[in-house]
Amino acid sequence: MVVRRKDCKFTEFNFKSSLQWRSGVELPEVNCPNFGAHPSVNKNWVMDSGGNSLPSGSDGLKRKVSYFYDPEVGNYYYGQGHPMKPHRIRMTHALLAHYGLLQHMQVLKPTAAKDRDLCKFHADDYVAFLRGITPETQQDQLRQLKRFNVGEDCPVFDGLYSFCQTYAGGSVGGALKLNHGICDIAINWAGGLHHAKKCEASGFCYVNDIVLAILELLKIHERVLYVDIDIHHGDGVEEAFYTTDRVMTVSFHKFGDYFPGTGDVRDIGHGKGKYYSLNVPLDDGIDDESYQSLFKPIMGKVMEIYRPGAVVLQCGADSLSGDRLGCFNLSIKGHAECVKYMRSFNVPLLLLGGGGYTIRNVARCWCYETGVALGIELDDKMPQHEYYEYFGPDYTLHVAPSNMENKNSRYLLDEIRAKLLDNLSRLQHAPSVPFQERPPDAELQERDEDQDDRDERWDPDSDMEVDDDRNPVPRRVKSEYVEAENKDAESYHKHVDSGRDFVMPFKEISCSKVSGVDSMVVDESYIKEEQDNLKELSDHRSR
Ligand SMILES: [Zn+2]
Questions:
Q1: What are the catalytic residues?
Q2: Can you tell me whether residue 188 is helix, strand or coil?
Q3: For 245-304, what is each residue's pLDDT tens digit?
Q4: Of 3.40.50.300, 3.40.50.2300, 3.40.800.20, 1.10.3720.10, which CATH number belongs to 2-42+63-542?
Q5: Which parts of the sequence belong to the Histone deacetylase domain (predicted)?
Q6: Domain ranges in the chain?
Q7: How far is the centre of ligand 1, averaged over its atoms, from the C-alpha of 355 (Å)?
Q8: Cα 259 to middle of ligand 1, angstroms
């Protein structure tokens, strides 16, 4: 079966049923279940049939948030006309800085994931290929390009491999912080690339940072829940964990003649994993109310029955109204309600990015959701900042949904909800795994804890790339310019950031006129706490 990819104007996509779990992954053994229990986790939380949504900021339970951001990430450029724009991560960061949110969280530059980190899920030859390919050499490797599905939707661009290392490093780093109880919520808006497969790029995704982060979480937690609110099916993550009960995947997505073609409500997992994959197929124009009429009852039931030790929420913003590739009609508040709801369970939470192609709305959404994570409500009136002109004519954080038709009838929504709740009712108990010795952390942590490196990590002027041996390598990153988005051709999208004029956000923030944002430098109280936490953990282990 061949499905025309909606978000791919170049290629046809060979439909691969998720029943062909080609890239299943070897799971780490878990350590003793209660070790590393998260300090803020209330193990006796009680389900409330009305939903546990917290009025932001008034629940008296602030969360400690670690936020991963690499100032280089906005410079990677998929190529002219390509809808995926890493620049949106930099726009999000600028909004966070100017809304004054950075000072409320631990801001971390991710440690680049190394080959061996990526190979915990991906095939060695695929990783070697990604490391070696360049725009200049790709013509000599046509067979390999085809084999690994690189070249069209997933183009070769300058710095491709370091881009992968950066976004994967942020997600795995977030999992490490959660595992060590250093934060309640970790955020990596550059991550969430849910389509990547074990030996294949797909849907603008090269390495699957989500699978890698979940593997890290599984070292501490018996069960990890993955929730995906991107408009596209979270196929790469589902496939990786299709035959295990240690990861439950739940994806809400547009289904029917739409990339990637998988995610039927009847795809429920296989073998030990049967009933541990949930798919919520939706149609065009879904609005906030319809979406939440499924999200809350289903996720409430999942939390009650599965009782995960950690939750990974992929917050793809292409499910927002007006997305360049999407066809849903969610408001930013409707999208963020999913974050608010999952946060309300007080379980360690990893928030990741994903799709999102009307980039001004992506930045709005992830900024607002960072506020939700922190329990801070943000003014609708946007502060002045370097990308302010993107947000005209209203210069507001929120945008009204459109009047498009909602093709999801009440009857169909009720039927889908009933079907999924019925599947869940077949799971009487949360599965457990035997006690094991704790597997070592991903090696990222070595450097993460290395005090010698801390200054370099935090140096706002440092844009040095290093190789595996930490020797500097020449800059390979091309600065991005912003092209007009062809869907709505906004005249206020200026061509900015030519290489010469490009200003590092860190630099700008450090001499910023905005009050409070100079705390972009490391928060000393957090460092101390982090050291104490790590010491406590190593004491615990040696006992
Ligand atoms: Zn998507």
A1: 195
A2: strand
A3: 999 999 999 999 999 999 999 999 999 999 999 999 999 999 999 999 999 999 999 999
A4: 3.40.800.20
A5: 82-370
A6: 2-42+63-542
A7: 4
A8: 9
